[in-house]
Design brief:
This protein is an alpha+beta fold. The protein has 4 helices and 14 strands. The strands form 3 sheets. The protein has an 8-stranded antiparallel sheet with strand order 4-5-8-9-14-13-12-11. Strands 3-2-1-10 form a 4-stranded mixed sheet. The longest helix has 19 residues. The chain is globular and about 40 Å long. The N and C termini lie far apart (about 45 Å).
Length: about 180
Amino acid sequence: MRPAFALIAVILLLVPSALAQVDANHLITPGVGIGPLKIGIGISGTTAAMGTPRGTLQPRAEWLASVVGVIPDSSTTYFFYDYTYTGKGKSKSVGGLRAIASRDGTLVWVQADYAPEFVTVAGVHTGLSESQVRSIMGDPTRTVKLLGGHALVYPGVAMTVVDNPDLTGYRSVVQIGVFPPR
């Protein structure tokens, strides 16, 4: 009995210190944002916090966001890291943050791509397996089939898991997107 109590005491002491290491600039908050990128702020506020985007893209290629259904027409994706799409579900990048803004410049989706330094309070980040995410967050409210993968959708947050062994990040979470709660 004493060893079990000692183990629980050690775990309780370590968990707050591990969570304290996630600073505000790297915190994923479902329904709110990721670090300085917050749902509902304007792109001008985003560029003030993040600097000039490295690239932009019309969101036809934003397959996860379009499947989840929060991306309005005429929106633009802003990449705050070097992103190069090479086709067939592969990209050349080290990962980072992206934001999707509606026509009026308001952020409607923010996303961490291949960026394990961005973490939820519970410890979810890219690179985890689906079973690890489910053990932390429980069952998703829904699962959406995607080309080459699937999305685990929870209130205000979705994780892309790659199912295709030919794609980068096979069997792991490669993207975490935050959207407004419904």
